[in-house]
Amino acid sequence: MQILTQNLSNKFKKLISQENAELVPIGKAASILGISIDTLRRWSKKGDVHCQRIGQNRYFYIKELEKINISRPLTISEVSWILHIPVSRLRKLESQGLIKAERKSNSERVFARDSIKHFLGSEYFLKGLRSQKLKIYL
After folding, report:
1. Tally of CB atoms within 10 A around 70
2. Using H for helix, E for strand and C for coil, what is the string for the chain?
3. How many other CB atoms are there within 10 angstroms of residue 101's CB atom?
4. 109, 102 in Cβ contact below 8 A?
5. How confident is the model at residue 135 (pLDDT cuts 50, 70, 90)?
6. Which of 2, 13, 61, 86 has its Cβ near the most Cβ atoms within 10 Å?
7. 87-123 pLDDT per residue, tens
8. What is the sign of the dihedral through the CA atoms of 26, 27, 31 and 34?
9. Which residue has the higher pLDDT, 126 or 92?
10. What domains sit in the chain, N to C, each tagged with a CATH number?
11. Rounded Cα gap, residues 104 and 125, in angstroms
């Protein structure tokens, strides 16, 4: 029985590595998206993301994960890290109308990438950039 299990395991590994090189296991997929495995399972069950089952394991397509990652709005802490601006300052910038945030159903602020790009081109940001010589990771 153990030999049969090892053979099946090796076949699955070969299947993943050769024919389905664009597939990643659920742990790696969750890491790519920056979410928990349980969240990814829920998204899969709802149909928000598609998976391929091999045995009892779920594998996800890298291209689909990349599309989700690019289209996903950023949280205030993510924007704070990217722009090197404290969260409290981002809240103030939003109240001044210099950056636009949307609200999720739980009232959490999220920022569309277009909103961030618009802010990056604003006179306010460019003035601060020239004075501080910031590095932006976007």
Report:
1. 8
2. CHHHHHHHHHHHHHHHHHHCCCEEEHHHHHHHHCCCHHHHHHHHHHCCCCEEEECCEEEEEHHHHHHHHHHCCEEHHHHHHHHCCCHHHHHHHHHCCCCCCEECCCCCEEECHHHHHHHHCCHHHHHHHHHHCCCCCC
3. 20
4. yes
5. low
6. 61
7. 999 999 999 888 998 988 888 899 998 888 888 888 8
8. positive
9. 92
10. 2-70 (1.10.1660), 73-132 (1.10.1660.10)
11. 26
Q: Among positive and negative, which fits the CA dihedral 93, 99, 100, 103?
A: negative
Interhelix angle for 37-46 vs 26-33, to 10°?
100
- Name the residue with tokens 């709005």: 73
Burial class, 30, CB count within 10 angstroms (exposed 0-12 / middle 13-18 / buried 19+): buried
Q: What is the pLDDT of residue 18?
A: 43
133/30 Cα distance (integer angstroms): 34
The contacts of residue 135 (CB under 8 Å, 6+ apart) are: 84
